[in-house]
Amino acid sequence: MAQVSFFVIAAIAVGSALGLILRPNAIHGALFLVVNLGSIAALYLTLGAEFLAAAQVIVYAGAIMVLFVFAIMVLIPGKEESGPDAKRGARIMAVPVGALLLLLLAFVIIGRWTVPQGPAGPSGSAAAVGRLLFTSYLFPFELTSVLLLAAMVGVLLLARRRPG
Amino acid sequence: MVPESYYVTLSAILFSIGVVGVVIRRNPLVIFMSIELMLNAANLALVAFGQRIGNLDGQAVVFFVMAVAAAEVAVGLAIIVTIFRVRRRLSVDELSVMRW
Fold this sequence. Notes:
The complex is a heterodimer.
Chain A: H1 2-22, H2 26-46, H3 50-74, H4 88-92, H5 94-111, H6 126-133, H7 138-159
Chain B: H1 4-24, H2 28-53, H3 57-87
């Protein structure tokens, strides 16, 4: 049962990732990416990481994808890739290179799978992850707030309308 | 129970698709989305490894990756919108200099 659900979700994830990179329209790509992020959230659930699954849906599917769709709408989709492609040959080469990368990663995963099996899967509940974040990872956690503030100020600076 | 190596293999597949997407597309927004795809593939591998060795540190790292990705998307989209405002076109082949 667990195997079946894993393979179904994995097929959805790979299919939506392919849809993202193959569909010419950016807004379709954004919708495919939402499906992909949702399927990864489902995979987090099957791994017992409930807090991350919820955070994935809220942060990625909620906040980040809204930003993406908004930017695509602002920037008039579908006009960027209409002309003839001057670097078509170089781009086609990307497919064998990507296949090679995948082959390499597969070799590493299959050939060197010697990760020690630890104690039975820890609970990824909000309580457990939150306790970890506020004890061992307290300093990086606080730094994250500074990073987000810096990003917010930087975006305001970048996006303001310049005079003239 | 699904072995963790399946999750890591799926993560490798998604990462490779993301790499191909970055190279074959001309629209910077789609390239950006492919980068998000790669970040998520790495996150999936982190959670799978954390589950395998039986502690929660992998999930804490994924939390930080999400926060950094959110900041990155905000800044990156602001840059793309600014470039579009100045140049009125949006193709990565034309964006080869860091000035305008």
